Amino acid sequence: MKMQWTRRSVALGALALGLGAMGAATAAEPAFPARTVRIIVPFTAGGSSDVQARMLADRLGRLWGQPVVVENKPGAGGHLGGKYVVDQPADGYTLMVGSIGLHAAYGIYKKLPYNPATDLRLVTVLAEMPHVVVASPALPAKDLKQLTDMAKKAPGTVNFGSAGVGSSVHMMGELYKLQSGAPIVHVPYRGSSAALNDLLGGQIQLMFENPPTVLSHIRGGKLRALAVTGKERLAALPDVPTATEAGISGFEATSWTTVAVSSKVPQAVVEKISADVRKVVNTPEFRKGLEDQGMSAVANSLADATRFVTSEKTRWDRVIQEGHVSAD
Q1: Residue 242 gets which letter from DSSP?
Q2: Residue 42, class by beta-carbon neighbours within 10 Å (0-12 exposed, 13-18 middle, 19+ buried)?
Q3: Residue 2: its pLDDT value, please?
Q4: Are strands 120-130 and 296-297 parallel, antiparallel or unpaired?
Q5: β-pairing, 159-162 with 185-188?
Q6: Contact 152, 181 (CB under 8 A)
Q7: In angstroms, rounded to a whole number, what is the distance separating the alpha carbons of residues 206 and 202?
């Protein structure tokens, strides 16, 4: 009898030691982040999303004490990058800077290999900005009304470039077409930088671009700014009227960027990333960097980000449906 109790005691002791070792291993797991974090930009380098991602990577790297690197994975209006993020390990080490195209205008694609609404998780809305209607100096139109009149008199002769089908740059052009009735022609590119090069070279006549990528060209006289799409004039371009002031009512919208992850990332990690991104974005240094490029910081909570993007999807679904916009 004594031998049986001795054996049982040894067995229970071994079990306790095993459980204790497992607990110690769990407790020893490093806190996030313990290694390099990647930020995927689903567009080419040089555009607004890329600029914001690199600003964010620099500041998060300082906060976390870990390398934060930016990788560009353009294509399919950003959805190649979106699908890539979804396919990565769901550990929080792969972030993405998202956009209208990924979160609110994906309805133009009928056969995406993933579902942006359920496969991506919003961390925060990073920033928002109006767009600038910019024209080649060779275009005779000096303002938005002249552009509209000219396009209606000669349908199909004015081409506008974009960062790709479904991108915010594309959707702003579609909103203008819907509100003005101007039959301009969309020419999609693999990123804004390629479209901008052709605009500067005179191959296309028009873009509805983010401020950061065109401000220097406007100031240098290489592009003509016809209007901005916000409710108010842009501080960086005080002499450029809003679209409403220029006579096109209803042509009012901002684009926005997000930080997103795979929806399978654990809640605690998502909350950690959200809190730290908002901490960085709300610093005076970061906010000033955004303002210098015509952008405004948002940095909202997980819940507020979801509500905002849901509302925006309803808005852009209307443009897609009424404008008969499709990528297929």
Answers
A1: B
A2: buried
A3: 44
A4: antiparallel
A5: parallel
A6: yes
A7: 9
Q: Could you please report the per-residue DSSP string of 233-262?
A: --TTSTTSPBTTTTT-TT---EEEEEEEEE
Encoding tokens for residue 84?
């890539």
Tokens of 308: 């905002």
- 160 - beta bridge partners? 186, 206
CB–CB of 175/254 below 8 Å?
A: no
pLDDT one-digit tens code per residue, 109-144: 988 999 999 999 999 999 999 999 999 999 999 999
d(CA 236, CA 189): 27
Q: Hey, what are 31's tokens?
A: 């806190």
Q: Does 33 sit behind a cis peptide bond, omega within 30 degrees of 0 on the bond before it?
A: yes
Sheet of 94-98: strand order equals 68-72, 37-41, 94-98, 254-262, 120-130, 296-297
Q: CA of 270: how far to CAs of 106, 241, 299, in Å? A: 23, 40, 14
Query: By CB neighbour count within 10 A (0-12 exposed, 13-18 middle, 19+ buried), where does 217 fall?
Result: middle
Q: Are 179 and 146 in contact (CB under 8 A)?
A: no
| Whole-angstrom distance, CA of residue 307 vs CA of residue 124 | 11
202-213: b (≥16 Cβ within 10 Å) or e: eebbbbbbbbbb
For residues 176 and 185, give the distance between their C-alpha atoms in angstroms, rounded to a whole number.
12
Spatial neighbors of 287 by CB under 8 A, at least 6 apart, are 281, 297
d(C-alpha 124, C-alpha 146), whole Å: 39
Write the single-letter amino acid at 107: G
Which pTM value belongs to this model?
0.82
Percent of residues, the chain, with pLDDT higher than 90: 75
Nearby residues of 292 by Cβ (< 8 Å), 6 or more positions away = 236
Average pLDDT, the chain: 90
Report the DSSP pairing between strands 37-41 and 94-98: parallel
Residues 247, 73: Cα–Cα separation, whole Å: 38
pLDDT of 253 higher than 90 = yes
Other C-beta atoms closer than 10 Å to the C-beta of 318 total 12
Q: How far apart are CA 40 and CA 74, in angstroms?
A: 9
Mean of pLDDT values over 273-300 = 94
